Amino acid sequence: MHLMTLSRFRATAPALPFSGPAMAPSLRLPVNGASGDAKDAVVILEKTPFQEESISDLLKKHTRLKLQMSNDIYSTYHLYPPPQLSEIKTTVVYPATEKHLQKYLRQEVYLIRETGEDYKNITLPFIQSQSFSIQWVYNILEKTAEADRIIHENPDSSNGFVLIPDFKWNQKQLDDLYLIAICHRRGIKSLRDLTAEHLPLLRNILQEGKEAILKRFGVAGSQLRIYLHYQPSYFHLHVHFTALSYDAPGCSVERAHLLSDVIDNLELDPQYYQKRTLTFALRADEALLKKFQEAGKA
């Protein structure tokens, strides 16, 4: 597929101001495959962060400025940067399933309060009924894809993991540093599966992840936000490492759980996450929301 051949599209997110990938506009595009049949693609457009050393280049003579408003000491302009400063990161999902398409539609969201019983009776059966592929995760773990991007690995099959840069981060600056630790052990879907049995794995991720990032990027553990999502975007246990100064997508209180807190909670009660009521957001179109509504839980 070549992006230059794309001629029709439907915007799946409105042109609103955004501060990061979570608010990035995306396009739904019908693409003709090799067989001539049209398949959907999702194209996600994100303005890459400006690098500090390039800011002065924006204000030189060859930069075009168009005045929008002037009032006393304040003025507003539209600035048209030179090509080398107008880079747009473009992520393509192709062919995109209906679930991919729905993921990027902007919709109303609702908070759910999920008890341990709700998880067993509603959420878990729903997860088990889905067939959303995580083969790409296994490809990373088996090093059949992205092997050259691995920053650190503990190869232990039970308590090991790989640490890899997230695609949200272009690795050109540390302001939006973002890495993911993916555990080797399969079958741990999310926070809900964690017990005291998994403490060695979680401690390894916390300690070794911080050490690897300090060694490779010079960022101290005290400057990192290290957390799990609930619910996660894919059901294979992974941990997010982001720069503390970066307002990363998904770091809000209704979704992010600090890894250090998770470890403390499991040390206090080995079954903590099987018992605790967890809050998370669901979008209006998500089938799981409908399941909670049918059960009178939303």
From TrEMBL:
Q: Where, subcellularly, is it found?
A: Cytoplasm; Nucleus
Which EC number applies?
3.6.1.59
Active site per database record: H238
Cite a GO CC annotation. Answer: cytosol
Entries under Pfam families matching the protein: DcpS (PF05652), DcpS_C (PF11969)
Q: Which reactions are catalysed by this chain?
A: a 5'-end (N(7)-methyl 5'-triphosphoguanosine)-ribonucleoside in mRNA + H2O = N(7)-methyl-GMP + a 5'-end diphospho-ribonucleoside in mRNA + 2 H(+)
The superkingdom of the source organism is Eukaryota
The positions annotated for binding substrate are: 136, 146, 166, 168, 229-240
GO biological-process terms attached to the record: deadenylation-dependent decapping of nuclear-transcribed mRNA; mRNA cis splicing, via spliceosome
Q: What does this protein do?
A: Decapping scavenger enzyme that catalyzes the cleavage of a residual cap structure following the degradation of mRNAs by the 3'->5' exosome-mediated mRNA decay pathway.
Give the family this protein belongs to, as stated in its UniProt record: Belongs to the HIT family.
> What protein does this entry describe?
m7GpppX diphosphatase
